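Margin note from the TA: students keep mixing up input and output lines. Inputs are the sequences; the output is the structure of the whole complex. Example:
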Amino acid sequence: MIEIKNASFRYPNGFVALENINLTIHEGEKVAIVGQNGAGKTTCVKMMNGLNRPFAGDVIVDGVNTKDVTVATIARKVGYVFQNPDEQIFNNTARKEIEFMPRYYKLPEAEVKKRVDYAVEVCDLEKYMETNPYEIPYPIRKFVAIAAVIASNPKYIILDEPTAGQDLHGTEVLGKMIDRLTKDGITMITITHDMEFAVRNFDRIIAMAHKNIICDGSAQDVFWNEEVVADAKIKKPTIGELAKRLGLDGKILFSEELVEKL
Amino acid sequence: MDREFAYSYNEYVKYGNGYKDLNPISKLTISLCLGIASCVVHKWQFGVVLVVIATIFALYTRVFRKYIRSLAVIGIPLLLLTSVIRQLQYGKVPGNTPIFKVLGWQWYKEPFIASMDIAWYIIGFSSVLLIYFLNTEMKDLMLALENRGVTHVASYIMLSSMQSVIDMKKSADTILESQKARGIETDGNLIVRMKAFFPTLGPIFLSAMSGTEEKAIAMDARAFSHEGGHTYLRVLRPIPAWEYILDAIAILILIVSIVYTVLRALHRI
Amino acid sequence: MAFIELKNVSYKYPYTKNYALHDVTCSFEKGKFYGIIGENGGGKTTLCNLIRGLIPHFYLGKLTGECLIEGKDIRDWDTSKLCSQIGYVFQNPFTQISGIKSTVFEEVAIGLENLGVPKEEMIERVINVCEQLDIGHLIKNNPNTLSGGQRQRVAFASIIAMDTDTLVIDEPTSQLDPEGTANVFKIINTLKHSNKTIILVEHKIDLIAEFCDEILVMENGTVAFSGPTHEVLTNRELLDHRASIPETARFGLAMEDAGKALPKIPITLDEAYDLIKERG
């Protein structure tokens, strides 16, 4: 469980980016965090792995307060995939990149292989294993970065804008990946601007605005709350927008629901 | 939109300060000539005079704080080191005149003057160049060079490399965070930090370089390789005659210094 | 004669085994707005590189077939002249900022400086473009301190200032947040009414549906489908070909499947609303 209790965060220059955040994420959940740039999404999520330490309040990951340990220690439990894979990848083949953390932890060879195979299978990277990551197209390179984090076997994985720059196929693989990982017991937390993606793949949506969380619930709770949509400046998924304009009730967000209604 | 700002490009580049508005190449010529003269003459008096002049300009161009800080960083260790080393090396040479005691240690005049000569010529040289670099934008220097025939390709390489270094520093922070976040321990003893160094080094250089091809394409789309006239939005003011005179004076000072030093050396012999 | 014509073009990047473009034949007419969609690796960017003259002048490799721009073969074009005809904006907002100018105003003027445009004219053109693209409030800022979305707008401005007849725009919003995306699409909207020939590569299919006159679907280096926007985006076969179609079109097809077909398959939100309302 990740608990953020009354946490406030301030940058070194004094600017307060988060005020009194309260949030609990239980194991096995699928959470998407949405909101405008500057609302505090990344800042908040960086508190979960200790990159940002609150000046007031606490962040507790599986019983350990993030202020008491180093980031690398928490990283064993909370994996974080940054938006830009090029800021993370430094090995010259995808295989070496994915194996890096298991080897860094000095795990036995069999365990390393097991983790790498799992990560590769989930991310569909079989044919790129011996390729230099910089020769892999950018959208697939993002998967190499994700696989590298999966291989460290964290309990929670945070994905920062995984859909940026992806095509339809990539987004589908992402969806399948999230499903598979949650089935295998990993808690998935995502920051995304792609509302359709959020609605399709995540049960719990957290909308942020003005340095705080303004709504925390199901997709229907968030996207059918006009105040929240306006405040967080998020876009309703197209079908939802259409249903709203038609004045239909039932908080419709999916094509199938709309077809039935009409 | 601030139209006044937009139309201000119709005028010559102006900083409103006598020193800053001098042509970058004239200023460089003057600074280098004086600085090299200081090295050639190798006497503390020349160095001190230069520092006084530079300090006056530092006040005039309002860069005093940065100037004095940089100068202190260079000067203070230099003064201490040279004077101490010289005393250790040559203090006890017979015939030396004792001058004062430092914490009970007797110091002598001849090595002291020699050490001051060394320290001050370097400080003098540094002071004039500091004033130059604190007050001159690289883009203005490159513009002046382009006016003298340097290609805009060279100018681009110079300026974009400088910007790349700044960008690399910024991305270094994000990259460090990224590596921490995957579990690479960065806080701790020296060995731990060294182990963390390599994974962060790679992405810094790689990301700087991987953008190069795209940058080239972007510049090509902006007609970078267009042959034929190149015009400028920012134009430096035409060089007034008196600037050339200043240049000439500086060059003259350099020549006189060289001649003086050579003669002095020959005299010695 | 079409403005840009490709006849049986095949192309292979150096040191690669697979052809990036396979026997592609298509043409682009002056003044129309074209959208190019398709999966990553399908050849969209390669097509852009070809039209821009980067293939074969910058990326060597093996090019066969004919690619004519205004009747002249691409191999005979001088790329420095081509950039005054065909503007190019691509996805990375960070590599399109030169890094050598300290104000946005100067950054937008770069192309004009290189082309030798007289200073007074340059200033007027830059002012106009900045107003058009709503970046007037940024002109004093250092381009290196701008956000991704702002940089992309500045990149657009520097190309639009060059006033080329054609614009090739390759995934301009893929690295941007919704606000940045919305701003870029405002820009593209103004371009639509300008009689320029626009070739836009995008994944955001709902937005492509709004602007484009015609669409090409690229897949494995070939043109799988092409034609007027409405025709292409409501084609069921597209679903099999893994190209995205707008949510509203998906919805329209689902209605058809459920036996509740609408008179037409909608590709935009407004269209869907109108069609449903009509039916009652």
